[in-house]
Amino acid sequence: MMTDLPNARPTASHFIDGTYVEDTTGAPIPVIYPATGETIATVHAATPEILERALASATRAQRDWAAMDGTSRGRILRRAADIIRERNHELSVLETLDTGKPLQETLVADATSGADALEYFGGLAADLTGTSMQFGGDWAYTIPRPLGVCVGIGVCVGIGAWNYPTQIACWKGAPALATGNAMIFKPSETTPLCALKVAEILHEAGLPAGLFNVVQGMGDVGAALTTDARVAKVSLTGSVPTGKKVAAAASAQMKQVTMELGGKSPILIFEDADIDDAVSGAINGNFYSSGQVCSNGTRVFVHQSIVQEFLERLKSRVETAVIGDPLDEATNFGPMTTQAQLDIVLRHLDTARAEGATIVTGGTRMNREGFWIAPTVLSDLTDDMTCVREEIFGPVMSVLTFTDEDEVIARANDTEFGLSAGLFTRDLTRAHRVVAQLQAGTCWINQYNLTPPGMPFGGSRASGIGRENARMAMDHFTEVQTVYVGMSPVEAAY
After folding, report:
1. Closest to 178 in 3D by CA, of 79, 60, 70
2. Is the N or C terminus of the chain more exposed, i.e. has fewer CB atoms within 10 Å?
3. Is 294 tagged catalytic?
4. Which option is the CATH number for 266-445: 3.40.309.10, 3.30.300.30, 3.40.50.1970, 3.30.420.40?
5. Does 260 participate in catalysis according to the annotation?
C-alpha cells in the first residue's frame, strides 16, 4: 500500500563541480523506504564520463583550496554546520526515508553529528601548523601539507556505509576539506540521498566548486575511484570483505587508506554495576538504529550473580519499545534498512535456535510491510556459537555470563575484531585495569556508543586502520614536509 510520504527525489543523481548533474545512461539504483518497501526515488550509477568530470574538477579546485589560509577554509565549514542545524528537521526526515531509522533518532544523532564534525574541524583548520627544532646553530621545521600537494594531485575518496549516510559524509569530508584536500564521496548504493544534501549545503556555505563531489554507484564505481592515479587517499566505512578489497587496490598504488570496518564488540557488566545504567548501555549498544551500528556491543557479558536480574529488567524495558511509523516522533524502533540485511538476521536467528540459544524476547519478523524484526535478546549461550562469533548487524543481543575478571577479559578479546568495548562497574580502579587489557580501539566506561567529534574513533585488527574524528583524523589527511636549514659553512671530506 502506498503511503503519503515526503518527496525524497533528489534534483539529480550526482553533485559535481558545484551543481547537480544527471546522466541516465548509468544503471538505475532504486531507493527503497525500509518501513514499507516502497521505491521512493531512483538515482543512476556514475558512468566513466561522470567519474572523469568529478576527478577533473576535484583536481583543478584543490590547488587553490590548498593555497587558502586555514581560517578561511574553517569559516566555510562552520557556516555549513550552521546551515545543517537550521535545516535539521528537513535533513532528519530525509535520513529517515533513506535508512528507515526513526525520526526521534535522526533528529538528534545524524545531521546534528555531521554539523558537529564540520564545526569541530572548521575550528581546527586555522591551527594546522608545523613544528621547529634546533640543532646547534642549524634548525629544522615541518610543514603539514595536504596529501595532494605532496603528490601533485589532492583528491581524496570517501566511501560511505548505508547506516549513517549524513554523518559519514561529514565525518570524512570535514577533516579532508579542513586540511586543504578535495573529496569525492561515493555513498552506499542503498542510501544515496543524504550525501547530495551535504554537498549542496557545503556549496551554499561558500565551498568552491569541485571540492566536494558526490557520485553514485555500486562497487565498480568505488573500485574505479580507488585505482585512479589522481586519487591520493581512500577513506572507507564498510564491511571487512570490502575493506580488504579496497586496501589491496589502494596499496598497489601506495595510496593512503583509513578504514572503519566491522565489529563484534563486548560489553562487560560486573557484579557492582548500576544495573539500570548497564541495561540502558546494553540497549543503546544493541538496538539503536535497529542494531545496524558497527561499534555495537553485541556480546554482553554479565556477572553470574546478577544475570537473572539483568535479564528481567532488560526484557521488560525492551518490550516497551515503540514500534511504528518511523516518521512519527513517538516511534523509537524502526525497520532494518534492506531486505537483504533482514534476511541475514533471520538466518542468524534460525542458526541460534538450532545451536540451543534461548530467545528471551523478540526473535521474530513482524507482520508489517517493509523490513521489520523485533528487538531480540538471546541467552544460554556459549562462546563458540555462531551468534556470538559473527557480526549480525541487526537488533540481536547475545547475553553471556562470567564469574572471573581475567576469564571475561580473555573471552572478550577472543575475536578477530577490535573496534569497540565497554564495561560497567562502580569500581573505577577495576574499570581502568580492565580497559587497559581490552583489545579494542574505542572503549567506554559506564557508557556506550557516544562519539563526540573531539574523540578519536576507530578500531584495530579486522576492524580497521586509522581513526575518524579528533585532531588525529587531520593527520590522516596530511603529509609532513621536513625542512633542514643549515646556518654554517658546509664541510666535506674533499
Report:
1. 70
2. C
3. yes
4. 3.40.309.10
5. yes
